[in-house]
Design a protein that fits this description.
By secondary structure, the protein is mostly helical. The protein is built from ten helices and four strands, in the order H-H-H-H-H-H-E-H-H-E-E-E-H-H. A hairpin with a 4-residue loop joins strand 3 and strand 4. The radius of gyration is 24 Å and the shape is elongated.
Length: 204
């Protein structure tokens, strides 16, 4: 993580409870950095990440209400370990939400191979995700109806980026389900026999 400023953003500098909470994090981070310089303890490194997470949230949380809650959570604890526990909890939640960054692939075939290898190694071959991924491979990451590309592969595979940029009529959307309809294709269809009939044309 990049280092953050030693002060909260200017718009928050008149809010004493925010400044106080941020100063708690700065003090804790400074003591952890000193300890880390004199030790190879992995736990200290983890604690540095947790306190840095709190710093980042105080800078970038999108709402004032969220900022208020973070400041209260930090300020209500006297013990540093309790503050670090809050940072750890936030770190876990962020990790669950965003996950680990995916690899980038140079060629379409590289991503296809990775998906197919994952399916072969899977212990639960009948999961729906398997068929969605295989449909992506089969349809070359495009909706079979609209020919619109899915956003994630275009942003991940260099070969597909080149193809997309070369085709002036190409479009991207976030896809759903096999055979990978964009949201806009079926957003106006009401549940009923007509929907089942329409989908069966393309998914049979």
């Amino acid at each position: 993580m990049a280092l953050l400023p030693h002060k909260v953003p200017e718009r928050l500098q008149q809010l004493a409870h925010i400044v106080s909470a941020y100063n708690i994090c700065l003090r804790l981070k400074k003591s952890l950095q000193l300890a880390n310089n004199n030790s190879n303890d992995l736990a200290i490194g983890h604690n540095l990440v947790y306190v840095q997470v709190l710093d980042y949230l105080m800078h970038y949380v999108p709402t004032n209400l969220g900022l208020k809650h973070i400041a209260l959570e930090i300020s209500k604890f006297i013990d540093d370990s309790a503050v670090l526990a809050v940072g750890k909890m936030d770190h876990i939640q962020i990790h669950k939400l965003y996950g680990v960054s995916h690899c980038s692939f140079a060629r379409i075939q590289d991503m296809n191979n990775a998906i197919l290898q994952h399916q072969v190694a899977s212990q639960s071959p009948f999961q729906a995700k398997k068929y969605v991924r295989l449909a992506f491979v089969q349809d070359r990451y495009r909706c079979v109806v609209t020919r619109v590309y899915d956003v994630y592969p275009v942003m991940t595979i260099q070969e597909l980026v080149t193809k997309f940029e070369a085709d002036l009529s190409a479009r991207m959307e976030y896809m759903q389900c096999a055979h990978i309809f964009p949201v806009s294709t079926n957003a106006s269809i009401q549940p009923g026999p007509e929907e089942v009939c329409l989908l069966s044309i393309f998914t049979s």
